[in-house]
């Protein structure tokens, strides 16, 4: 399975002063973001009955947090790709955010496939069962909300978890920085969000898994949720 590993145990900068000069003040979690979600998905997941082909025009885009509001971009230019990825990961540890990085080639594949297939569902295991998350991709952002929340609130459902991709170094360092924000910690833990990020990447970057994403978006009548469970080695509930 192709997974873009999230680094969470990297070496720190040589001193606290060096780190604080590299990064600016961390900005808090986003909240109250509105987005649109399509209606009827597929057999196997019960949601309101609407035409799956009648997609909404897309969520109201997230207010993109500039990279320079998070790091000293000029100083970042002096780092090697490996050091920059390490510093990025170290900065986010313990701050309620998820960090990762990926090669430019993989990002471009993700971007290309996401433009063609914007929606998918991923179950997150919780205790003795799973909670199904609905994801909507509009690069450079990915938004996750609970399927049950959508059933109750429709397009007013709030996101649980958002992901932003930063492409500033994709050409010079072959590196795309990724930041995830857990909006509702009561709905999703940091470890669950980390798993969700990695799993979402795997469904878009792994050729075999991506066939399920294509089926979900293009051949809804043939999509079976049990195939997603099988791909994730989760039991049928």
From TrEMBL:
User: What superkingdom heads the lineage?
Assistant: Eukaryota
Q: What is its main location?
A: mitochondrion
Keywords from UniProt, A to Z, are: Mitochondrion, Transit peptide
The biological processes this protein is annotated with in GO are: mitochondrial proton-transporting ATP synthase complex assembly
Cellular location of this protein? Mitochondrion
GO cellular component, alphabetical, reads: chloroplast stroma; mitochondrion
Instruction: Family membership, please give it.
Output: Belongs to the ATP11 family.
Q: Which PANTHER family match?
A: ATP SYNTHASE MITOCHONDRIAL F1 COMPLEX ASSEMBLY FACTOR 1 (PTHR13126:SF0), CHAPERONE ATP11 (PTHR13126)
- The protein depicted here goes by the name ATP synthase mitochondrial F1 complex assembly factor 1
Q: Which organism is it from?
A: Lactuca sativa
Per the UniProt record, the lineage of the source organism begins with: Eukaryota, Viridiplantae, Streptophyta, Embryophyta, Tracheophyta
């Amino acid at each position: 399975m192709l997974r873009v590993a999230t680094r969470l145990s990297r070496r720190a900068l040589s001193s606290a002063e060096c780190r604080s000069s590299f990064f600016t003040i961390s900005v808090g979690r986003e909240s109250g973001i509105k987005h649109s979600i399509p209606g009827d998905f597929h057999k196997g997941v019960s949601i309101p009955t609407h035409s799956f082909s009648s997609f909404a025009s897309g969520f109201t885009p997230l207010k993109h947090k500039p990279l320079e509001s998070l790091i000293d971009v000029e100083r970042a230019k002096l780092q090697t790709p490996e050091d920059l990825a390490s510093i990025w990961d170290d900065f986010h540890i313990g701050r309620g955010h998820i960090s990762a990085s990926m090669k430019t080639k993989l990002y471009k594949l993700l971007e290309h496939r996401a433009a063609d297939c914007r929606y998918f569902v991923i179950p997150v295991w919780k205790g003795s069962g799973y909670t199904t998350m609905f994801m909507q991709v509009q690069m450079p952002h990915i938004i996750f909300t609970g399927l049950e929340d959508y059933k109750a609130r429709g397009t007013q459902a709030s996101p649980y978890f958002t992901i932003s991709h930063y492409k500033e170094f994709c050409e010079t360092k072959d590196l795309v920085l990724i930041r995830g924000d857990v909006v509702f910690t009561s709905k999703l833990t940091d470890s669950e969000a980390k798993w969700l990020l990695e799993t979402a990447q795997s469904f878009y970057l792994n050729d075999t898994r991506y066939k399920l994403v294509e089926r979900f978006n293009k051949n809804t009548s043939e999509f079976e949720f049990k195939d997603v469970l099988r791909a994730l080695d989760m039991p049928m509930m």
